[in-house]
Amino acid sequence: MKSLTFIAITLLSGALAGTVLGLVNQGVVEPYISAAIELENQAAAAGGEIIDPAELATYRIWQRGGSIAAGAVLGMSLGALFGVVFAYGRNLLPGSTNLKKALALAGIMWLALYIVPAIKYPANPPAVGDPETIYVRQSLYMVIIAISGFAALALGAAYKKIPAGSRKFIAPAAYAAVVVVVFSTLPANPDEITAPMDLVNSFRIATGATMTMFWVLLGAIFGVLWDRTKPHEAAKIKAL
User: Fold this and answer.
1) What is the pLDDT along the chain (240 residues), one digit of tens a residue?
2) Can you tell me the distance from the alpha carbon of 210 to that of 30, in angstroms, rounded to the nearest whole number?
3) 7, 116, 126, 197: which has the fewest C-beta neighbours closer than 10 Å?
């Protein structure tokens, strides 16, 4: 394994996919966040709180700019995880090329790390929810991500030990069983949604679309870079 090449393509693919995510979110997701914040400010003003428009505008500019950098950091973090899993499981992944294998892995991780947690705890705009429950909500979300991710990883590690004729059925069934148990065990979101549901649902659709785009991009960029650089091939030592 060419370690430096592997690290480079892993971080680069994650950074590129994450940066695109942050940029696309500016036009796709941010309008819903702005609408939710406006509703929150209206409620605060109605309660007698004084809102400084200039201060709010400055904060939003900083927040929107920071979301692009945050997308890049998130991308590199997930890219690093993606790279490690791909390196160890490449031979088990379906697909005739590394690009197809990378896209397959991206689909699996999209399901385990995003779709399953989002079904149990759907995303809400940042201004929606009681601030006092934010740590509880974040903890529950991290718990379901960890359980779903480790369940998928464990089944992947055990894939070879499953009888060949039953692999395609036993592995998904086992993962589905874990998800059912987790869904029935973990508590529901403790906050009642008071924002208009059309706003909340539109936000959820927008974030779902951009996160799906992120995983497709991560898999595609990583697969292309892997095929071009071939980090799994040992470096050849030229004779003097």
Assistant:
1) 688 899 999 999 999 999 999 999 999 999 998 888 787 777 666 666 666 666 666 767 777 778 899 999 999 999 999 999 999 989 889 888 999 999 999 999 999 999 999 999 998 887 676 777 788 888 999 999 999 999 999 988 887 788 877 777 888 899 999 999 999 999 988 877 777 889 999 999 999 999 999 999 999 999 999 999 988 776 543 433
2) 12
3) 197
The answer to whether residue 235 is domain-embedded is: no
195 contact partners, CB below 8 Å, separation of at least 6:
36, 39, 124, 125, 127, 128
Which residues form the domain of 140? 3-229
Q: Which residue has the tokens 């992947």?
A: 156
Torsional sign, CA 149, 155, 159, 163: negative
Q: Please give the Cα distance from 20 to 76 (Å, whole number).
A: 12
Global pTM reads 0.87
Tokens standing for residue 122: 């759907």
The pair of three-digit structure tokens given for residue 227, joined into one six-digit string: 């095929």
Number of compact structural domains in the chain: 1
Residue 168 lies in a domain: yes
d(CA 217, CA 79): 11
Question: Phi-psi bin for 230: left (phi > 0), alpha (psi -120 to 50), beta?
Answer: left
Residue 237 lies in a domain: no
Rounded-to-integer distance, Cα 197 and Cα 200, Å: 5
Contacts of 187 (CB under 8 A, 6+ apart): 140
Q: Is the dihedral of CA 220, 157, 117, 137 positive or negative?
A: negative
The gap from C-alpha 37 to its chain's centroid, in whole angstroms, comes to: 23
| Inside any domain, residue 58 | yes
